[in-house]
Amino acid sequence: MNQAELTEIIYETTDRVAQITLNRPDKLNSLTAKMHEEFRLALDCIDQDPRIQILIIKGAGKGFCAGQDLSDPDLKLNHLGETLEINYNPLIYRLTTMKQIVIASVHGVAAGAGCNLALAADLTIASKSASFIQAFIKIGLMPDAGGTWFLPKRIGLQKAMGLALTGEKITGEQADQMGLIWKSFDEEILISETAQLANQLAKMPGLALTEIKKAMQSSFNRTLVEQLAVECEAQDRLGKTNDFHEGVSAFLEKRPARFNNS
Ligand code: T3D
After folding, report:
1. Is residue 233 within 8 Å of residue 215, measured between CB atoms?
2. Which residues contact 74 (CB under 8 A, 6 or more apart)?
3. Domains in the chain, please, with CATH?
4. 205 with 261: CB under 8 angstroms?
5. Rounded to 5°, angle at Cα 51 from 50 and 52
6. Total-model pTM
7. pLDDT truncated to tens, each residue of the chain (262 aa)?
8. Distances (CA, A) of 5 to 56, 65, 69
9. 46 Cβ partners below 8 Å, 6+ apart?
10. What share of the chain is helix, strand, coil (3-state, %, to 5)?
């Protein structure tokens, strides 16, 4: 993919880390059909780049993302289901099932589908002053882009209902305290903390990260007995990897492990 073709996102990579920056700061990075198309292209690039272990998603300018661009001429107001089927549902499914670990780094506003895009990440981190808003009800809609799935699972039915029914804004710090996100930080250190988390995960054994993601993300559909069987199969696979043997050797030799994802 040629970066010059991209006008609504920025796609960058360094070593094992890819970064997608939603880049329509004048419109609070609200999502257009074109932005979705560019997002898909970037995810295709990640699929084809075996080095990439971590994906960071962030917003340019003063916020993360204000959800669907309500003025996008490509948005068919009488056929919202179509927009979800073509753009949002595949995006959310792809982020939660791709082998890379996805980090959403939220500053400023994450509203509507922008909020749920942030929640679709494996780890959502935010500035304490960020705003998470299930804005849908204010325009006569219900949470989509996975909101009705992520919210009750993370924070319980009562808090999920409260956020969805009222559209009340919560801060990054409140989202952290409620267990909606992984951690919140002072705004000044969010960028450095994001990089630190990405680099920390990038040094970890990638096959194990992927197995953890697969097992956790799919666990809600299973009974305990079924999940124990999933752990058994996955652990058996991991036990045969070079990374496991390197991890054990490094522990016994009291040295840092050097994982190579094999
Ligand atoms: O098929 C489907 O189902 C479609 C999918 C729908 C999923 C959804 O996401 S529905 C929910 C869509 N989002 C919203 O309803 C949020 C709308 N935005 C807001 O309520 C406010 O902008 C915020 C509370 C998020 C932030 O407020 P504030 O005061 O910090 O910023 P602002 O001044 O309102 O926004 C800055 C600019 O961004 C402004 O443009 P302007 O006037 O300076 O030219 C504003 O119009 C624009 N903007 C913000 N959000 C959107 C938007 N433009 C288009 N669509 C937006 N969603």
Report:
1. no
2. 32, 33, 34
3. 3-202 (3.90.226.10), 206-252 (1.10.12)
4. yes
5. 95
6. 0.96
7. 777 789 999 999 999 999 999 999 999 999 999 999 999 999 999 999 999 999 999 999 999 999 999 998 888 888 999 999 999 999 999 999 999 999 999 999 999 999 999 999 999 999 999 999 999 999 999 999 999 999 999 999 999 999 999 999 999 999 999 999 999 999 999 999 999 999 999 999 999 999 999 999 999 989 999 999 999 999 999 999 999 999 999 999 999 999 999 9
8. 20, 21, 21
9. 18, 52, 55, 98, 100
10. 50, 15, 30
Q: Token match 């922008």: residue?
A: 114
Give the Cα separation of 88 and 104 in Å (integer).
16
Helices and strands (H, E) in the chain, number of each type: 11, 9
For ligand 1, say whether the CB of 110 is within 6 Å of any of its atoms. no
DSSP 205: -
How far apart CA 196 and CA 184 sit, in angstroms, is: 14
Which residue's CA is minimally distant from atom 48 of ligand 1? 27
Judge contact between 181 and 172, C-beta under 8 A: yes
Atom index in ligand 1 nearest the CA of residue 28 equals 38
Q: Residue 18's beta-bridge partner residues?
A: 13, 55
Q: Is 142 in the pocket of ligand 1 (CB under 6 A)?
A: no
- Please give the C-alpha separations between residue 40 and each of 169, 171, 184, 193, 197, in angstroms, as whole numbers: 29, 29, 28, 26, 24
Q: State the distance from the centre of ligand 1 to the C-alpha of 161, rounded, in angstroms.
A: 22
